[in-house]
DNA sequence: AGCACGCCGACT
DNA sequence: GTCGGCGTGCTC
């Protein structure tokens, strides 16, 4: 006999909680983690709600799992995320529920120390152990044996004799507590005012969202550290979200310099026991500060007081598989639900965040100057129409002259070209055959080091042929256009005695080696760095005084409505790499269109004007942030199936007033994880219930068949 | 996500 | 005959 029914949400792609009978004698509360039968197996789930009832026709809850229960706020947040992203509720739960995979108890750590009289029979091995333990300190059993050069058996023997005694050691803390007053940084007047404004928001109800806008080198990090310190002082937790790549040793060291210890970090690389303990520590409130990638937003914080979203404009915050979400936007909502202050930090805020600040939804705190009176780099456009550059060369005389000057003074130069590989296009001289990807119809990019042609869209790789695959001519292939590898070749010819390095995401040797090389660059072991957008993010190069942008026009011509914004942000960050040390830096920006608004804003340093103009252009086009752009992502193993399905969906739906179906995107299909994928664009006015409409649409669409899947991606926008 | 069920091709 | 491949659908 039972008196209650539990609606249990299971972390699978299910949209409804399933009802189970609660056995008498099993005390359950909403939010508890339970084990329930599902089909033939048992799975873990969370009690989403409890209600009275006999539940005679339901299966019964098998039992409670010893895991931190999910707070009402956490459940509200997950419900909201599922609603907003149009994902099944169970999928949202899956992001927030991390259960121990092994049931095995944590290995007990046993310490030993000297306790009593020497053993009756002394041996050389025993003698060494006793001598070591003579200092009275507690050691791990295994360590003591190792240090003494004996086997564990010898130590065990001494324990049996009573010479040594065992001591239960407390589990190592997952993370040490940061000390908010460990070392106050010296802040400038501006910085102190900004820091006080941010820290003050923690005491407001409801806690507001603040845009912290500061040029590169203005000390944003130090400023938001003060808000973190305030959270810790109040006994609350702070979460610092960052793009995965930015979770560097450099950042952790800066944190440690301010707080005495490194913060707990959470990202996809944190696994196993460590992950479990962190999860538990965060749920208990023991872990005070977490620095993490976007997934850290879904942890069950006990007392969240502050969320910092560092580099809030970063596209890495957008998750594009499974549940589609933008961590920055979800952070704003989580903050509101937990009454935690939110700080969005960036040197180049996204348009939507700017608009929210301009409309008063977010506060706006500015750090207009570099810290320590350092100058912003002088930026100059190099008009490529007026420069004499030989065929097959890409560095203008102006840039070369500037490089000579800087290198001559022992300084570093960064050359930026956002194009991996050797050449973006390969042609046959004899028959004009263009090497294209068999899946995506994108050009294949030559990678000369790897001797292969690579599709940057889907990852397709083929060996660079000796003879043309179309006409058979030998040695007839020509490489058109530059990639970073090709620039490296040119640089080696121009500056043979200088040490150059190419940095791009296909850097050989993985993250570890990349990290080492970045440190080597900072230490001055290279003179010329040639890099893709990888170099724009998060690394300080104190000896870098000159930045050359080789082709500022890349990205301006794409059909993406955010192209201008993205290019502006990228170029502003890259040029900002110049002159972070003592000496002011300068940047030369090679372009074919020096009058383009993006280039003009960059050179004049008038970001405000650019954003105003860009906002106006978007308003006229009816694009976000003034409406919403959603896309249905249709994917299937076969290209035709995906395409046909998207077309069918576009026809079936009859949009309500305020909604425009822009139709299947003309953009080339992308092949991701063996599935063809493309978008069906929907535009709406702000007032329209986009979620309701899209759900209804999906329900009316032809039954999704034949391994076709549909996901929905709501673009970041103003939704508060 | 599993896991069963079912419907087709090649084997002890 | 039946073993097993995968495609489809259900799980309170």
From TrEMBL:
Binding locations of Zn(2+) 2: 437, 440, 455, 458
Stated name of the protein: Replication restart protein PriA
PANTHER family named among the record's database cross-references: PRIMOSOMAL PROTEIN N
Keywords: ATP-binding, DNA replication, DNA-binding, Helicase, Hydrolase, Isomerase, Metal-binding, Nucleotide-binding, Primosome, Zinc
Top enzyme category: isomerase
HAMAP family attached to this UniProt entry: PriA
Cited function: Initiates the restart of stalled replication forks, which reloads the replicative helicase on sites other than the origin of replication. Recognizes and binds to abandoned replication forks and remodels them to uncover a helicase loading site. Promotes assembly of the primosome at these replication forks.
Enzyme Commission number(s) of this protein: 5.6.2.4
Domain of life per record: Bacteria
Provenance organism: Microvirga thermotolerans
Coiled coil: none
SMART domains reported for this sequence: DEXDc (SM00487)
Alphabetized SUPFAM superfamilies for the sequence: P-loop containing nucleoside triphosphate hydrolases (SSF52540)
């Amino acid at each position: 006999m039972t008196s209650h029914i539990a609606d249990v949400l299971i972390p699978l792609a299910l949209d409804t909680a399933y009802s189970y009978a609660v056995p008498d004698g099993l005390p359950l509360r909403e939010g508890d983690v339970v084990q329930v039968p599902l089909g033939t197996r048992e799975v873990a789930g969370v009690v989403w709600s409890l209600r009275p009832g006999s539940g005679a026709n339901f299966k019964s809850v098998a039992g409670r799992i010893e895991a931190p229960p999910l707070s009402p706020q956490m459940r509200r947040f997950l419900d909201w995320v599922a609603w907003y992203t149009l994902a099944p509720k169970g999928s949202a739960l899956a992001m927030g529920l991390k259960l121990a995979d092994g049931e095995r108890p944590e290995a007990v750590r046993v310490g030993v120390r000297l306790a009593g009289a020497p053993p009756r029979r002394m041996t050389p091995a025993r003698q060494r152990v006793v001598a070591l333990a003579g200092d009275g300190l507690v050691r791990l059993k295994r360590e003591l044996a190792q240090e003494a050069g004996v086997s564990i058996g010898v130590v065990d023997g001494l324990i049996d004799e009573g010479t040594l005694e065992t001591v239960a050691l407390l589990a190592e803390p997952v993370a040490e507590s940061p000390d908010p007053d460990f070392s106050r940084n010296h802040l400038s007047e501006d910085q102190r005012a900004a820091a006080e404004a941010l820290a003050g928001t923690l005491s407001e109800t409801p806690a507001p969202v603040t845009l912290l806008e500061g040029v590169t080198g203005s000390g944003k990090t130090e400023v938001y550290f003060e808000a973190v310190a305030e959270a810790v002082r109040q006994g609350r937790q702070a979460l610092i979200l960052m793009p995965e790549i930015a979770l560097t040793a450099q950042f952790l060291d800066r944190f440690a310099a301010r707080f005495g210890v490194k913060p707990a970090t959470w990202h996809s690389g944190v696994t196993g026991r460590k992950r479990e303990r962190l999860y538990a520590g965060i749920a208990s409130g023991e872990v005070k500060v977490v620095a993490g990638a976007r997934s850290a937003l879904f942890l069950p914080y006990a007392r969240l007081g502050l969320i910092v979203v560092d580099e809030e404009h970063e596209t890495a915050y957008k998750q594009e598989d499974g549940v589609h979400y933008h961590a920055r936007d979800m952070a704003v909502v989580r903050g509101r639900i937990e009454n935690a202050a939110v700080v969005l930090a960036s040197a180049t805020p996204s348009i939507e965040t700017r608009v929210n600040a301009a409309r008063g939804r977010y506060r706006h705190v500015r750090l207009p100057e570099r810290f320590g009176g350092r100058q912003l780099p002088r930026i100059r456009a190099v008009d490529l129409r007026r420069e004499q550059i030989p065929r097959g060369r890409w560095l203008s005389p102006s840039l070369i002259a500037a490089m000579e000057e800087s290198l001559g003074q022992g300084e570093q130069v960064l050359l930026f070209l956002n194009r991996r590989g050797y050449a973006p296009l390969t042609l046959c001289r004899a028959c004009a055959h263009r090497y294209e990807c068999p899946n995506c119809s994108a050009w294949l990019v030559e990678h000369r080091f790897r001797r292969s042609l690579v599709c940057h869209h889907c990852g397709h790789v083929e060996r660079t042929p000796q003879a043309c695959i179309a006409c058979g001519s030998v040695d007839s292939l020509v490489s058109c256009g530059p990639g970073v590898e090709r620039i490296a070749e040119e640089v080696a010819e121009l500056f043979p005695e200088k040490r150059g390095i190419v940095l791009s995401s296909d850097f050989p040797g993985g993250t570890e080696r990349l990290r080492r090389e970045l440190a080597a660059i900072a230490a001055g072991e290279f003179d010329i760095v040639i890099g893709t957008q990888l170099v724009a993010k998060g690394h300080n190069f104190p000896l870098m005084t000159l930045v050359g942008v080789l082709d500022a026009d890349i990205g301006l011509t794409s059909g993406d409505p955010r192209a201008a914004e993205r290019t502006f942000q990228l170029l502003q960050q890259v040029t900002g790499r110049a002159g972070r040390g003592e000496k002011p830096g300068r940047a030369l920006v090679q372009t074919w269109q020096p009058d383009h608004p993006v280039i003009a804003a960059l050179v004049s340093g008038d970001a405000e004007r650019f954003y105003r103009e860009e906002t106006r252009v978007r308003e006229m086009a009816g694009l976000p942030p003034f409406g919403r752009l959603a896309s249905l992502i249709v994917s299937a193993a076969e290209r035709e199936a995906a395409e046909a399905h998207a077309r069918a969906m576009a026809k079936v739906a009859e949009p309500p007033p305020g909604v425009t179906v822009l139709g299947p995107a003309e953009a080339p299909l992308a092949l991701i994880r063996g599935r063809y994928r493309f978008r069906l664009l929907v535009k709406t006015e702000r007032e329209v219930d986009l979620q309701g409409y899209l759900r209804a649409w999906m329900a009316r669409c032809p039954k999704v068949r034949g391994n076709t899947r549909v996901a929905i991606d709501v673009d970041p926008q103003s939704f508060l």
